[in-house]
Design a protein that fits this description.
Strand content: under 5%
Number of strands: 2
Mean pLDDT: 93
Low-confidence stretches: 462-466
Number of domains: 1
Helix content: 55-70%
Shape: globular
Strand order of the largest sheet: 1-2
Length: 466
């Protein structure tokens, strides 16, 4: 039990906890977890409480977002359990700039795609949303382009699921320098002016949001929202933050990882990608975690729909434009893919990493603010340009089928069976590539699997020297 609390988890277990959070939220609110607009509303509290401007609040009224708060505290809670804050991780300026501009791109992309990658991947795909599947497919190629850009900018070695000090120190000892780019024993985070400035902005946002909550005037504030709902939403966010913090769970890296099966080791080496990332990608560990979360939510949707008579959740509503797939999705999807990679993780990963004190998370935060501004300032014009040009009215795959419940039930069950088969195949294939048993694949963290591989490689090298 102690190891479960103090050691990192596998992606499968991280995905299970994130999936559990989605299930809990859906059973209460009959919708996937909403995330992105909540951050825009929290930025709005800065205008209402401090600057007295209306750049954000003309579209998004200031409010607290309890799920997001829970995600941040979930990441912070992980650092307490594992007794390791990530403030020791030192990123060069180019990586911080990439994270900042990645957040700008991602933030605007969420407005066009009507949701972040978590909303579409974790919420839409389980609900058989055509829109979300389209967004996912158009985002993946551009995520790879961003990955190649990062490599060209000599930032490939910084793309990891997490930085774990014990793993990095062991790699220093064994002289695997691609794993140690963020490690500087002389680094003092409390003397880093960039970190201090970004931390001040982050804390100001948190304090401003809680002040709005205490005033009791906004819909999510204390007094307006029942304590049971505040507790539930915070708990849901806490679970997501813990699942990400313990495993490195993310959405974009998950859908990218199967492509690595087509890549040779020298491709990774040419891009100077860390060996632990190679192990993670070729073993499709993030993909397995994502599938676990998707399947858990999909099972819940099927049960509530077929047995309880609930509606299948509609992930996308386009306001006065009723298209299930429009130009905004076609443009916004690639922006989500590019932004996620540049930030070293999708939006929900960034929130958890904020709580863990990752500097890239802090750098991304003001980028989100700038990314929301164009839409907030020119909402009607952007809606007319991007949302009025539709390609398809249907929002869900079920809408393409005959209006017969047995046909739709049958299709949904086949869809679920395909997801389950994909998970089984991923675990089988991934464990073979990672050279571990299926049990180890499911239960061991990425760091443990990598260190086992590193140890075996070191032993082989030692024997050859003899």
């Amino acid at each position: 039990m102690r190891n479960i609390l103090t050691k990192p988890w596998s992606f499968v277990w991280g995905g299970f906890v994130v999936g559990l959070a989605e299930v809990i939220y859906f059973l209460k609110y009959e919708t996937p977890i909403p995330i992105t607009t909540g951050l825009a509303k929290m930025f709005g509290t800065l205008e209402e409480n401090i600057t007295k401007t209306d750049f954000i609040t003309r579209t998004y009224s200031g409010d607290i977002h309890w799920v997001l708060i829970g995600m941040v505290f979930g990441g912070f809670f992980v650092t307490i359990l594992e007794q390791e804050r990530k403030s020791w991780v030192k990123y060069p300026p180019r990586v911080l700039l990439l994270a900042f501009f990645g957040a700008v791109i991602f933030g605007f992309g969420t407005r066009l795609a009507q949701g972040c990658t978590a909303w579409h991947y974790l919420g839409g795909i389980p609900a058989m949303s055509l829109t979300s599947i389209v967004v996912a497919f158009v985002s993946i190629p551009f995520a790879y382009l961003a990955f190649m850009l990062m490599a060209k900018l000599n930032a490939g070695g910084f793309m990891k699921h997490h930085e774990t000090k014990a793993t990095v120190e062991k790699c220093v000892e064994l002289e695997y320098m691609t794993e140690t780019l963020c490690y500087d024993p002389e680094y003092r985070p409390y003397k880093d002016r960039v970190r201090l400035g970004l931390t001040a902005f982050f804390l100001l946002l948190i304090v401003s949001s809680f002040w709005t909550a205490l005033k009791g005037e906004s819909p999510n504030s204390i007094g307006s929202m029942p304590w049971i709902e505040i507790t539930l939403k915070t708990l849901v966010g806490l679970l997501v933050g813990i699942g990400i913090g313990k495993s490195g769970f993310g959405t974009e890296c998950a859908v990218m990882s199967p492509k690595s099966l087509l890549m040779k080791p020298h491709h990774f080496e040419a891009m100077k990608v860390a060996k632990i990332t190679q192990t993670m990608f070729t073993g499709m560990m993030p993909f397995a975690g994502l599938l676990v979360a998707i399947i858990m939510f999909n099972f819940t949707i099927l049960f509530t729909w077929i047995v309880l008579g609930w509606d299948v959740p509609v992930v996308v509503e386009a306001g006065r434009y009723k298209f299930g797939f429009h130009l905004g999705h076609l443009i916004g999807g690639p922006m989500l893919g590019i932004g996620s990679v540049m930030m070293l993780g999708c939006e929900i990963r960034t929130y958890s990493r904020l709580g863990m004190s990752y500097l890239t998370g802090l750098a991304a935060l003001p980028g989100f603010l700038l990314g929301y501004l164009p839409y907030s300032l020119y909402k009607d014009r952007i809606d007319d340009i991007f949302f009025s040009r539709g390609f398809m009215k249907e929002k869900n795959m079920l809408e393409l089928l005959p209006d017969n419940e047995f046909v739709q039930y049958g299709f949904a069950m086949l869809y679920t069976a395909m997801l389950v088969w994909l998970l089984v195949w991923t675990i089988k294939k991934g464990s073979q590539i990672a050279k571990v048993s299926k049990k180890e694949y499911v239960t061991k963290s990425t760091d443990e699997i990598f260190m086992k591989e590193l140890h075996e490689e070191h032993i082989r090298g030692y024997k050859l020297d003899i």
